[in-house]
Fold each of these.
Amino acid sequence: MKIYAVCGAGIGTSVLLKSNADRVLSELGIEAEVQAVSIEQALAAESPAQIVLATEELVSKLDSIRSEVIPVKNIFDLAELTSKLEQSLG
């Protein structure tokens, strides 16, 4: 499974979100490749991601993609990430 952690440029918020998503997935025992990307990469037609994690302000820009978009309110809240990933993958 491929998961994108998205931010505007792919080098700030997305890196932090990727790190926390990796931690949560490991604790859940779920194997997935999480990649920090820019919004342009997430919007690419050839995007292989099944799930896209993005802050709430970017979600409306991602409505045209085929991936499941999971809005994240607080990228540092591991409980929020755990709940949303469990709901999506469970």
Amino acid sequence: MVTMAGTLDFLSVNVWHILMAIGNLLILVLILKKFLFKPVQKILKQREEEIGKAYSDADKALSEAEAEKELYLKKLDDAKSEADSMIKTASERAKAESAEIISGAKAEAERRRRNADEDIELAKKKAADEMRDSISEMVISLAEQVVEKEIDPKAHASLIDGAIESLGEE
């Protein structure tokens, strides 16, 4: 179908159709921009802000956790040093008490030894005094016997021998 004017109907270009199509396209773009792109952009921006807030909250929580960890480690170190100090103090106190108990026991042993030595000395003195009293009584008794008898050398010798024998028996 070729017309005489030399145009083809199915290939014809109508400028008004092209302008109408471009106009419709512009209207469609404006409508889509108004009702679709702006709300979608707004939703995307809100999501971006929420994600940014979540990241900042996570960073804040992480930094707080790190601070808590540091505080915990510091308290743990302080507790360890305090425990070491308490153990050292208790050990020193135990050593001091041990030395005090040992010195007290030594002093008590020395006091008991001195008392025993004094008791021994007193017993020796008492025994010596008793022996002296016994010897004095024998000498007095011997002197009485000598005075009662006549003094002759034989009687005198036998009296001394008897006194010596009686000393040996006691």
Amino acid sequence: MEEANRELTRRVHDLLGIYDVLLAINSSREVDAIFDLIAQSLVAMVGADSCMTFLCDAGTHKLGRQLGLGILQETTADSEIQESQLSAHVIRSKSPVEVEDTGSEDNLDCEILIRRGLRAFMALPLRTREKTIGLLIVGFAQPHTFDERERGIIKLIAEQSALAIENFGLMENVERQGKELRLAWDQMVQYAHDLRHEYDAERQRSAQLHKAYLSAIKVLAAAVEARDPYTGGHIERVTTYCVAIARELGWDDKRIAQVEMGAALHDIGKIGVEDAILRKPSKLTMDEYRQMKAHPEIAARMLEGIDFLEPVIPYVLYHQERYDGMGYPYGLSGEEIPIEGRLVAVADGFDAMTSDRPYRASMSPEEAIAELRRCAGNQFDPQIVDAFTRAWAAAKSS
């Protein structure tokens, strides 16, 4: 039990650490401040001693100024790293480089990093979908072997950092959002610590773990939902609808417990979508829609490697697929779409239709059910629509 509690606390702490960094990226107007925070967060989360970021100059396409020094003091000129064989190799290959001990590496000019006091490092290109825009180096003062957890954290933050730089000018409402998200961070950290002590006193480990997981997930999901003023209560309603559908389909309690977590997390990838897009009352541009469409894959990457959340990835990754193959991110159709995604799609669609939006009034539940039936076989799975309709009729008559 004690080991399980420690693992839970570490997993939740990792998730919240990544969450905090991504939100900071998407809420700051100061690029230097963003990369200072990224450096500090990576140093804390993976135990590194240094985090350096070099951005490519838009005119020359060469590495330019350095940001985010971590905790080590600068001992060599920036130009040495910018012009090094190591940097050229990472930028050219578009792939990460790991060195466990710089003192035994002969193929790259690691003496530059040795003079900085680094004995191990990971160097990654900062890439958007189309180009390399910089270089990230995470270093250790002693020889170090990177594990999968460290690689996952570093690579995810590197990906989101590149996206943030590319879309830097589109962020709004920084001060208010920062306060809200800092409050959510404080609440979640406190909750994670309280959770450990609560479990020690409980005799029903499985039931307690699920209850704690779901509570933590709902607080995190609510913090994301709070960024969009038009979706208040959306997570709770979609979760309720999904559970009702699953019960109508005859799913067992263990599977329904996963439904609760998957439904609560289905929009968590919107952490990586800017406020300017989430709050836009008018139609999105092609580029804005492209960014919005990235949220299922962002969510899946966040949950990868977290043992108790990996089973719910299908709920977040496939809920925007359509039965006719016209959805995203993969354009799957029919039963190629995992049933978890098809289930959330119906619940999500019903709630969207029965909620007010700036550009249209809400439908009545009866109108929305009629629309679900009309779109069955095109947008929605007919089997799931039938199950939802039966569950809705049963709830209304009770």
Amino acid sequence: MTNLLKTMEINLGPQHPSTHGVLRLVLELDGEVIKSCTPIVGYLHRGIEKMAESRSYLQYLPIVDRIDYLGGFFNSYAFCDCIEHIANVEVPEKAQYIRVLCMELNRIASHLLWLGTFMLDLGASSPLFYCFRDRERILHIFEELTGQRMMYNYFTFGGVRWNIPDAILDSISVFVADLPNCIKDYENIITNNPIFISRCKNKGVLSKKTALQYSITGPNLRASGVALDFRKSNPYLVYDKLNFDIAINSECDALARYKVRISELYSSLEIVRQCLDYIRQSNDEVINKTLKPVILNIPDGEYTSSVEAPRGLTSCTVKAGGKNPYRVKWRTGSYYAVQLLPELINNSEIADVMAIFGSLDVILPEVDK
């Protein structure tokens, strides 16, 4: 009771716009200083893992796009890869390059949305419109290719559903040529802005030891000085044939997490350029070698596929057998980032909560599943 008289408990969310979804943070405040933080999740739980048990593999495939609605291609790849390994289905090389092309464009679109909303969390509105302007060009490309702006359902077992027309390749080429100048504009506005630096530098410091203890992956881990990128350490698809740099920073704070994601925009553009060159020069029109478009019965087996998604490592484990999956389990980066919040924001001021939380790039549908 003595402690309660000294401190005040408040709820941040679940309706707060800067919680990136329906997240509730129960904060104990001593004046402006946070003494404890309890994240409460589950408001968005949809039972996506359980859904798999009552659906065929093909019926479940469109649902996985919704786990991370900003990175649907990564979820689709992870699930398809599991089924392809269990059923021993070969993916043509051209289809692999198309998958990488789509995923890296998806990564750029995800990082652009993160950057715009992160700056809005800090009170800057102009970067939001610039980032959404450029992200919109990617969504137009995806809409032309897949018919959808967000839930694509373009990857399928054995490859992709159809080839990329030359007109779409031309649109991608123009976008790839334009975006570096746009990123430079972002940096001119943001990177050396004294207000931005004061809000992010030495805020939410995540040491290498703590990041590893909490199983943090992706840009948040690389911003703590750990050069772990599954595209390099455990290459999948054709990443071992592509040249790109791992974005890494050892400053460990919110500013470092911003810098890593800005660097990843450039590295993803480089990957997209290489994929474009291969697809244009390839004479192979085979994008799917499966004889049947619908796989009715998958042999008994279990496989885990991992993909380097925008918010960290996304892993899908499928235990197969019969017409429906027996079990499906998803491991997503955002869930681990939410667990990290008490470690990062305790003893910080309440004004720093959104700067620290926003720098982690959490998407709540990926947390609740």
